[in-house]
Amino acid sequence: MKYFFNRIYILLSNLQSKIAFYPSVFAIFGFLIAFALIYIENQGVSRYLLDHIPMLVVDNGNTALSILTACITGLISMMVFSFSMVMVLLNQAASNYSPRLLPGLISDKNHQVILGIYLATILYCIFVAVSIQPEGDSYQTPGFSVLVGIIFTVICIGAFIYFIHNISQSIQINNILDRIFRQAKTRLNFLLKTEENEDQEFPDTKEWYEYHSEKSGYFQNLSSDNLLDICNEKDTQFEILPVKGIFILKGIPLLKSKEKLDDETLKKVLANFNLARGELVNTNYVLAFKQITEVIVKAMSPGINDPGTALNALDYLAELLALRMQKQNRQFLKTDDNVLIKMRSVDFEELLYQVLAPIRAYCKHDIIIIQKLGMLFYYLKSQKAVNAKYYEVLDIEAKNLFGDAKSVIKNEADLKKINAIEKQLNLKS
Description:
Oligomer: single chain
Order of helices and strands: HHHHHHHHEEHEEEHEHHEEHHHH
Number of helices: 16
Structural class: alpha+beta
Number of strands: 8
Low-confidence stretches: none
Radius of gyration: 29 Å
Distance between the termini: 62 Å
Helix content: 55-70%
Number of domains: 2
Strand content: 5-15%
């Protein structure tokens, strides 16, 4: 049963990243409220309010229809405008910054909830309007339902004001970078916490049984608790072969098991791998490095030419790299003191290369960016690293960067600055 619920959880997690998820849920909610209040009206709630608090009830059918029609028309206009603004935001982010930013912006729950409130209120007003009889007497008019519709409309107006504020903030690159940074930092801190007091060794897996993926997709996450239960049940250990975040093709090696797995157990194991057609920062911090790198490269392109954005992005990149230096290149999952699962992480060397290679290729001509990168290296070399090899990797990438910069920069004053940075970093020839 737990595996069934796990599939449901994975499905819901994927749906939540879609822009239509929350609007659809709220629409169903508005539909149900409309029918619930129509039922309450049949129990005489409007008649009671009309007799005791008449100022709260609309007792004229034509007036009620006019009010609801005005609410529906206005809300449709607001919803169309809001959707248009979201599309403008997505288009600007894709063209000016990076297409890889779109999943994070689309999955913004604030925008989804606001659009959902609009849609729920529109559907509610439509179904209440259908139930009104314009020529009926005052006791037949669903006055209480109309009052609720007015209240919902006022809430929508407040949500619209908040939406304008939120969309104006979301479109700013500093806020986009800050959101990416905070998500990646949260994920890295979580992984670092799991590595505390972790000094166990994992056995050699060369002779273990190897199993392959049955479908393709980005390796987003896995249900570690279920896998640990399987390890305990079958008295085995697993090694997860692919690095989280990479695209897994059908048929490539997915994991190794110390003990041979039967078909039923293998099916249970594979069901705990979440393979999707997209990437999420909150489950894969490496994507944050990729996004920030693309923002830097895009900002320094001739069509954009925005070095200020590139400099700001490098600040976020430096802090994330410093945090990554505290993490090992692997992760263990265990119960009590027994290490049952080994997971691979992107090597720091490979990560640093993937980050700096594009920057080196597209920004090596800009002395200001080179100086900023020199400060980045100096900062990272002063930070604590879980592995001394990380400092050697930093020196290698620094040499590559300054070597490429010297090959394209010919100004003597700029070259002197590069030499001074190399001397400050104590780079050996």
